[in-house]
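Exercise 7. Given the components listed, write out the predicted structure of the assembled complex. Treat all entries as one system.
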Amino acid sequence: MDKFTYNDMEFAVAAAGQAWDIVRALPGGASAVVGTGLFPGATATDAAARARALVKAIYPVGVKIVGPDVAHPNMIGGLRIVGPDVTHPNFIYWDKDSVSCPK
Amino acid sequence: MEIKGSVVLVTGGGNGIGEQVVKFFAQRGAKVAVVDMVQKNIDRVVADVKAMGGEAIGVQANVTSEAETAKFVKATVEAFGKLNVTVACAGIIKDGTMLTLDKETGKVARKMGLDKWQPVIDVNLTGTFLTLRDSAEAMVNGGWPGLLVTISSVNKAGQVGQLNYSSTKVADALMPKIIIGEFMMRGIKNIRCVGIAPGYTATPMLTGMNQDALKAILADVHLGRLVEPEEIAKLIGHCVENEAINATTLEITGGLCYEHGIAK
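Answer.
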């Protein structure tokens, strides 16, 4: 079993028959299946590399927010909650490791 | 297109109709991406697929965000190497009338606010558009045969109290015609698009409602019961296998009628 930490989350890649499962550790010793029956026939090394790439795709980190999207607030009672403006030309969707995200 | 070996992406796959669509395809040998807003629901459904020996990934995402629709399409292709079927099940309701009158004065006491209108438009219409757009992009660029599925509703006919919801569902019903017209124009021949318009369905929202109100609903259904989510999943499965079904929206209602036996 291969284990790795990504963005403060613990993952394990384990063989399941001819394929591989990725499991995410939850608080209190529990776990959740991120993916099952993946990469059939892959070697352990290949599965570990592909699992890391897949986890980065599922849990992207380091999003640089440019401008609040004031046109589409989420209303909670009278409170306006505004998210990032993903249509802004300078919006950067950062899908690399959080460590390399520019500060 | 064969179900076995195909890759299926389901938004709203964490409960209701979407969950049954996920399980239907997983049981038949498809690889499934379960997309939902609620991580707990995703974890439960992916664990169920694992227990049945299927192949799946779970991706938490909000379909109203361009960054997130791009994310779950990318993750699906990363996991399974292709994408063949996308079922846009994610949907919400926020019912209410456009105007509410004061019983004594007859004047308008309250109007439907954007807090009820906009989220329904964002999830049911914009979310469906973004999901289908990014899925189609991956299918075209990957050269994979595909099927895009919108989930409409029999209430596309116009349900009082659902001005927001019905407006989105009539649009979702129309999308297959427009998308296939565009594909025809662009020479995209191997991707189809269909809409599914369920009637009253046995999701927790309906089965948990006031039983007298439920009885009144069923009085108008020829079948005499709610449509099961599995029956809707089966219809989508049939659409995958039957390539002649294209550019249309199919109703699955159990025979929903107006009073005096006139079919809706």
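Discussion: Chain B has one domain: 7-252. Residues 7-252 of chain B form a domain with the Rossmann fold fold (CATH 3.40.50.720).
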